[in-house]
Automatic annotation (TrEMBL):
Protein name in UniProt: N-acetyltransferase domain-containing protein
Lineage start: Bacteria, Bacillati, Actinomycetota, Actinomycetes, Mycobacteriales
InterPro entries: Acyl_CoA_acyltransferase
Domain of life: Bacteria
Amino acid sequence: MSTTSTPSVTPVVTATPDLAAVVDTLTSSFAADPIIEWAIPSSTPDRRRYLDAFFEITTRALLDGGGHVAATPTYDGVVVWSGTEPATDAENSRMLADLEDRCGPCGPQVRLLMEILDAHHPTDLPPHVHCLYAAVRAEARGSGAREMVIGAFRELRIARGLGVYAEASSERSLKLWKRLGSEQLGEPIVLPAGPSLYPIFRSA
């Protein structure tokens, strides 16, 4: 992923982002993603409302658990990651119930997706964060937003000494993660009658 022709954009890392702006970028960037399409199909009436609910609830849960958002000043590029401690069973149950309630007819599928991700999260990794989302709006490509994403991961590895675990949602995104120095962990996570996710890890 070349960034040599784009201006430098220093990531703003915060535990109190403009959540509405974060959600808007995530919904816009992931609307056609195969994993999101599986969970909240494009044929779903009022789909935008359920997409917004999904990204709001999951992002808020990470922030409440000690996570952070890195973003460009205009939120055209965002990275969302967890704290270093996993959520408690009670916290996770509340999040799953909230997702199922607010995602309408897609609630059960959305809940299943999150349960599958949780079940496959490795338990033997060194200190790390879980990067749930990394997104750049299509119209912001070439503006330095992608470089901001790379800068956010550099901040985690060098300044904070943490590894980064994530699940690539397509073979294309897997290639991008590998170009950033990540390695694939084990076999893909295959969703029931659906696409695959690819667990990856970048050590500190």
